[in-house]
Amino acid sequence: MASLVEELINVLAEEEKIYMTLAANGEKKRQIIIDADIPELERLTDADQKASDELLSKSNKQISLLTDIANVLGKSQEQMTVTRLIGYLGAQPDIQAKLTAARDRLLDAAAQMQKINELNSQLLAQAIELAEFDITLFKSMRQAPETANYDRNAYNTGDILGSSGFDAKQ
């Protein structure tokens, strides 16, 4: 069982490294979004996807290890978590401390990555809003106001004045 717990600690450490990589990429994305460097954003997003695939693999390995540990301890597989395992390891304080530290570092890294992602999401939303504003502004600059012409049913006909800037001849 000790070897399973040691392997679980190693998997948690590997997951933490992946989260830290994703967080570092998130920091890079902030400046890339500000600079509107789309090719670089695509490259970094591809790297994030590969890291996410690796993270999924490590997560599946973690679940497999927790299932094996639950079987060894005679506990329910569905309810076995790292936190519960820490509680079960009261008789082995050194392993318990290592597992607690690994779990805490992983949770901190995941929280940091989540915070960075939320900030980048807000930045992207603002960039999209600004682009929509620019498009609306450009459309309105090329469009003349509607006339106040009504048909016989009192509906606005929607006629638009000429699209040229000035009608005056020089």
Which short descriptors sum up this protein?
170 residues, Methane Monooxygenase Hydroxylase, Chain G, domain 1, 4 helices, 0% strand
Mind explaining what this structure looks like?
With 170 residues, the protein is an all-alpha fold. The chain has one domain: Methane Monooxygenase Hydroxylase, Chain G, domain 1 (Up-down Bundle), CATH 1.20.58. It is 74% helix and 0% strand. It contains four helices and no strands. It has helices at residues 2-35, 38-73, 82-88, 93-141. Helix 1 (2-35) runs antiparallel to helix 2 (38-73), helix 1 packs parallel to helix 4 and helix 3 packs antiparallel against helix 4. The mean pLDDT is 85.
How would you sum up this structure in a few lines?
The chain has 170 residues and is an all-alpha fold. The protein has helices at 2-35, 38-73, 82-88, 93-141. The longest helix has 49 residues, at 93-141.
The CATH topology is what?
A: Methane Monooxygenase Hydroxylase, Chain G, domain 1
N-to-C terminal Cα separation, in Å?
Answer: 93 Å
* Main sheet overview: none
Task: Tell me the number of helical segments per DSSP (H or I, 4 or more residues long).
Answer: 4
